[in-house]
Design brief:
The protein is of the alpha/beta class. It contains seven helices and seven strands. It has a single domain, classed as 3-Layer(aba) Sandwich (Rossmann fold), CATH 3.40.50. Helices cover 43% and strands 18% of the residues. The two termini are 20 Å apart.
């Protein structure tokens, strides 16, 4: 069975450097013979990672709620496009279809997805890698805040469960590693 990597990333317009990063991730997935599981949108970073994965011969499984079909422009070129009724159902299906989770820069939705999969991982609800790819310092403020919280709010074990990388190769390698 082909390894499937779930990516979380921006669905809104972003500058070219972010789109290039997403394209590099998609190409890297395809180079390894891995598939992509993502939010099913064809815009911004979401679209860039999916198109690059397909260009390289990788398979793509998009999961999108009905309410976002036009807003995120559902990617009708996906090898498989699953349409859900709710965001919760979307995340459940993405989780079920994925061997690892890779977060790229994004906004509130991306952050919410990262936090949920990271939390469930360090609580022992899954044992798959949770990787944050942040070569541009997008999440530096968040990571500083988490490390500076008073003792007891975020354990050192929880912080160590998130693999933080600054380059695509390291991020993809981390997706292949067992916990």
């Amino acid at each position: 069975m082909t390894r499937a990597i779930c990516t979380y990333c921006a669905s809104g317009p972003v500058e070219e450097s972010y789109l290039e990063l997403a394209s590099q991730v998609g190409a890297g997935l395809a180079d390894r013979g891995w598939g992509l599981v993502w939010g099913g949108g064809n815009t911004s970073m979401m679209g860039a990672v999916a198109r690059a994965t397909r260009r390289g011969g990788g398979s793509t499984v998009g999961v999108i709620p009905k309410a976002l079909m036009s807003r995120e422009r559902a990617d009708r070129d996906a090898d498989e496009l699953l349409v859900t009724d709710t965001m919760r159902e979307r995340k459940r299906l993405m989780d079920e279809r994925s061997d690892a989770f890779l977060t790229l820069p994004g906004g509130l939705g991306t952050l919410e997805e990262l936090m949920e999969v990271w939390t469930s991982g360090y609580l022992g609800m899954h044992d798959r890698p949770v990787v944050l790819l942040d070569p541009l310092g997008h999440y530096d403020g968040l990571l500083s805040w988490l490390q500076e919280l008073p003792p007891g709010f975020v354990s050192q074990q929880a912080l160590q469960h998130l693999v933080i990388t600054r380059d695509v190769e390291s991020a993809l390698q981390a997706c292949a590693e067992p916990l």
